[in-house]
Design goal:
6 copies of one chain form a homohexamer. With about 325 residues, chain A is α+β, with helices and mostly antiparallel strands. The first copy, chain A, is built from 11 helices and 9 strands. In chain A, helix 5 runs antiparallel to helix 6 and helix 10 runs parallel beside helix 11. Chains A, B, C, D, E, F: It holds the Pfam family tRNA_anti-codon.
């Protein structure tokens, strides 16, 4: 059966689809005692409002924001928009493909190719072994290719982690040429690995959510633990190289107050931090400008992640 | 052969002993061209100055501060103190017992007993298994019992880690009674484990030194890695308990700027942070007061770790 | 006449009671011009909504949030909750027992006993005289036993100051044993006294409010002034002991940015600050976990006093 | 007998005078074993070096920096400067006039007059009573007129407190005219009183030193305690005026991190803080420029109190 | 034709006037599908609500908050206030006198006089030439006399820049007498010039708005650029005086975090910063107290610019 | 006449050369009263010690550190190093080529070429006109090619500004390709111009020194002033482009506390800030590692500009 997407719903259609529950609210009837249920349903293509007129309290109690729900409804036009008159709304517990609900980053196929080329380009055999081993583990590789780079702000898309990691690693490859004393392979490997903890930090179902591990450990520590267990499986991995890679992961935020327990202590770690910042900033400014609401003004509204208004003049 | 200790040297003695090289400096002869070598030698009982009049440049080049050195010399009196006229001074490369050079914390035997009693008192079987396994590994246990709690400031003594960990764990045991909603076993286990990364952070030979791992990862991350590998070896260790223990280690400094990548997120983690601070502060104030130099004033000099003068009135 | 409490009101009852006015709002009639008055009334057992349909503007103008009001009304059921149809609502100006409106801390009787035992246990005669004198003054003693520990966040309960002070003092008694160089009596006395300024910082009528003195001076300075006047009345109180006690009061927040004009300068002051923090943190984490709203998630909502979400997993 | 001052000593004179011991150091003889004592002696007019060739160790042990010493010596010329060959140097324990050792601020007589005129100008009877009472107490008045405004940096002169207080109060008088909603009498009284705690913060003998009270309480809290006891003695002093004055004292540093436990909460307190800053800054910049050492450069060296170099171009 | 002002509108009047559009909102009809437009209109005398019942979506789309609009309407009474039933509302694009929409500071005529007297009083010929030249340029002079001192908080009035600059300059003139080493002319000239960049930072039409230049450069940099171009036109203006004046402009906020790229480096720059702060604080406290809403409490609500509640007791 | 360089001086040579005076100190003769003058002389190739035995006080008074001095002397060997026995040392006042005294950055010729290619590559005609005009002014161009990038830390070499600017601009060119929404020409032009104020911030004679303009305005403001005057000379330069370029200069430090009066408000400004940081960090880490002193340890000493030790393992 083809899936019905939000942006395909038209007034007059009978809707039978699966959506993520974004908002739920009990509201009083205008003319009578009692409440109806107002919901917002969404998938990767957009959001639509819905109303459940009967059994609202009961439905409200058994559903949670973030649930995947199977909905039967009639689509109508209300005040110029589409609205669903819901007949039934039931929680779906089965396995769900998050790609139905969360938009994906662009250029994923190309990013995968670049990832493999970058790994193949490593002259340092130990680093190449480590990365080959890690990215050939099917579970890890799939998780890495699907994970977002954040729950909010920049790269909150399926595949965001992959795209961000490859962008930073490619820039690292480039920059290494300007600074001959930099160890190119260490820098590139560190760039690929720096955010791997994010495969544990986020969970994608109806939306991107932070996991308990994400909140209790964070991707910096989770990444160090993941890497440490991977290194354990590479025979004769040099101890000083292990310390350098682990250091690059834990120092890549650059400052204690940004949750790095160490600040960068050598050139490659410092470069990695700067390149990570560069891509994160570029992403946030680009998105802020792209998402500007008031087209009459050259300024965006307040951008929370940047704590400023952005100029698009 | 009995070892000669610094506090046993008297003017007139022929000295043949092993010491840690604390300071070395080339100084010009007063009446002629050329230099002599002025050194400070030390062990756990104190320090003594020495002079090498011949071959100073050569000796200075082959010795490093922190080396263990075998010294032959004559002890003389100079300006009211003992001074060594050195005949030969040679680096010792063999295995050395750091206990000769670094003073030990008091109450080590009692602290070991309390440690075992605290582990035995755990009702949570998984926590008891984990701690029993960890502290029954000979290498780890010996390292834990010998490690200092710091390279400077508080607990810079052999066994300082053990004493500090047990003091905090015992206080945790006590405090848990005041707050019935606290999980006593989790708190006590976390208290015992919170600083285990320090077995990787410091190296003790002639003095306490920070290792490369200590500088690149720090005891917070090293501790998390150590604990993670230990948990791997306990069958069926619950994932949520693993996250809680790891969180307690990485959050025990309490603030990002104090190098914790996460702040405490639950009661036991918060209590652990506070109890760690309490013992560290008590230790620093006690030592500052005990080490006051000017006995005519009720104030100590500037105490670096506390960034203040301490009142002893 | 027995007082009617909010949690005793049932639909159908005629209500004639005294409550604290928590919220007042003028809202427009749905079907006609003009406004009605929507109020929230409360006491220590809970809150209830009310509606005044006639004379709303006039009532709104003469009542203030925080007032104690005598209310006559009919209780009805509305959308599944109890609501009061108010016939009259009049401000009460007389003396009111705040215990009707503000919940009390648990264990007050036991806390009083522990307070007296702690004072009796002081071996230092000057400290014992000072505390005996202070706590035997009826006005002060009653104020101390009734005052909350805060207007919000932790210990915002009648008797909160007493319970907090005794908890900290008992912990101080305990901790003093671990650190033999600590002056146990000074520490215990300081712990009992550290927050006495709160008897001037808060006023309890229908709710806990900060006084002008609380806002202009704060409990740290008010506490120092109170203590200074008490010490004046103890014959031959030693000047250095006076300075130490005053210092413990003004430094107990530990940092300038937490409104202490001095940071702790000696061991007992440092311990007091840490013990105060420990109890405050334990209280905030416990309350946050106890008040968690979404029972499906192991995380609380955002906790303002802690600036984080708390994990209850 | 006329006192001999440092700036009157000439080579060839027999010196018999009383000085403050500023520096003492044991230095080795150049040509023989043993040490001599090198001292720096000073009074309000300057400093002079001295040498004690015999009995140096014994003298060094019995003298402390800061002592007042009676010295007999021969003045000689050495490397172009005056130096004292000391025959005897003995600690003086008696009462000493600090004016011999610490320079005095300029314009003290005029400042006293302005102080009395400002007090006399107060129209608010309660404020006038309070200030009249306080400044008519002989001990307090003398201490106020002699106290420095700081131990270092700005106003480290006898009478510095008086001059600073009067300058700020006169500026307050002026400024009050620009802001008609300011209470001129409250502002002027607060300005006169804001630093009175400094009579307890400093002790003047051979030099300005901070007292134990200064270090444990600080002039902000000492000032509040002093004022509170003075207010107690004014019949029917209004409670709100008491709170306002106390608030002005404790908030006059303006920020928590500058050791004010409250920030200014009303106009007069805010103006007082700004006027205090203005005079302190003017004093530090003027002194920095006046004390510039390298006359070839328009820049002073690093000025610690200002954390910058000052331009004098 | 006389202009109709908001505070002249009475129920029953036919309104035909020009206003600034302060708020616009589409709201659903209560009894039928579709929306009406709710607006707030304002001028310097106040604000009034309006309703447009027909063509709401179209009007909402073509109007922007901040627009000047010509309105035809009937004034009615609604819930005790005046409300406009709007017949037509059309954007006005022509030149508008902002004085109709933005209130003006008091004492503008006197401030202009004081400005000219202060310029005339300069003994330094170069400074007098510079200021005479600048303030004799008609465009600049008019902009300077009309500009506000801020978009929010203090001095958000037409002419606020003039009044603030003259107040600071007059205080500078006064203060210069207390500190004889201050260069009075430099200080007064710097005070007059310190905020000239604000003529580029704000635009006044229906309200005070920040310009793109204000947001991208800020008045500190714009002021330096303006001054630099003015100095270029004064023959033989000394380079060191140019640097001092420019420094006073860029350092007058006093701290990096307050957007000064340099901190004050000489006395006059330091005094200017303090005097600017004094006037800004006085203004904010006075306004906060004047604008207190709850007359039953001696405290204002939260004052954003001061980050505190202000006491008016 | 060929110039004598420090690294060409050998014991036994008669020296007649011109050097920069790095250090001067009066030291007492060992065996007699009076002083000799100890100096350190330097040029771009190194430093050498010198002694003036006669007329030391007079010479010390007439010479200043930083002076260029003509020296006649005999080179001797002393304690294994070369030392100059100075016969005469006289200040040189004439024009001096700083290239004799300050080392030059590598790759200057190539950097100039890349600069011209980058300017030629600009498609935006206004930007190309501006940069062509600016860099074709001989005085500015020479100053730009000679200026250092800093007085200390990174790029303290003649030509450092050129090399740094070109490196950043080339990286900008590269990065612009990754972010298609970036305006490549604006970014490259901003990168070339971002530090032009440094031609006014530093003066090179015997060493790199900060000018009065550097200390009073700083290169951020000086750069904006320079750019503004250059833009004035380009006909019809668009106002919005002027604001953007000026904004990029004043925001390139990225944070208020790093002396930027504005934070970056658009993508190109944000990228420029990050690229500037990247090159500065790379430079500091590379230099720190290259300058490591203790070759036995993988760690450098404390690096002031980075506030850390750098790992070179």
């Amino acid at each position: 059966m083809t899936e019905l997407l939000v942006n395909q719903i038209r007034p007059g259609m009978s809707v039978d689809g699966v959506f993520a529950l974004k908002v739920k609210k009990l509201l009083p009837y205008r003319e009578a005692p009692g409440n109806f249920l107002a919901v917002v349903l969404g998938d990767r293509t957009g959001q639509v409002e819905g109303r459940l007129w009967e059994g609202a309290e009961e439905a409200c109690a058994r559903l949670k924001v973030g649930d995947i729900v199977a909905v039967k409804a009639q689509a109508v036009e209300y005040n110029g928009s589409v609205q669903l008159r819901i007949d039934s709304i039931i929680k779906e517990n089965g396995q769900m493909n998050p790609a139905k609900f969360i938009p994906a980053a662009e250029g994923l196929a190309e990013a995968k190719e670049r990832l493999h080329r970058l790994i193949a380009s490593l002259a340092n055999e130990k680093l190449k072994s480590l990365l080959s081993l890690l990215f050939s583990e099917k579970d890890f590789y799939e998780a890495f290719c699907q994970a977002p780079a954040a729950a909010q702000y920049h790269h909150a898309l399926l595949g965001g982690l992959l795209v961000h990691s490859v962008t930073v690693a490619a820039a690292a490859d480039n920059v290494a040429r300007n600074y001959p004393c930099a160890d190119r392979d260490l820098l590139v490997a560190g760039a690929i690995l720096h955010d791997i903890g994010k495969v544990r930090e986020y969970r994608c179902r109806g939306a991107v959510e932070q996991t308990d591990e994400g909140r209790l450990l964070g991707h910096i520590v989770s990444g160090a633990l993941l890497l440490d267990r991977a290194i354990e499986r590479v025979p004769d991995f040099p101890e000083d190289l292990r310390l350098k890679l682990l250091h690059m992961i834990i120092s890549h935020h650059g400052r204690y107050e940004w949750q790095s327990p160490k600040r960068p202590k050598f050139l490659e770690a410092a470069l990695l931090h700067q390149l990570d910042m560069l891509d994160a900033q570029a992403d946030m400014f680009s998105r802020a400008a792209a998402g500007r609401e008031d087209k009459d003004s050259p300024w965006t509204g307040w951008v929370k992640g940047l704590e400023r208004n952005v100029y698009c003049g």
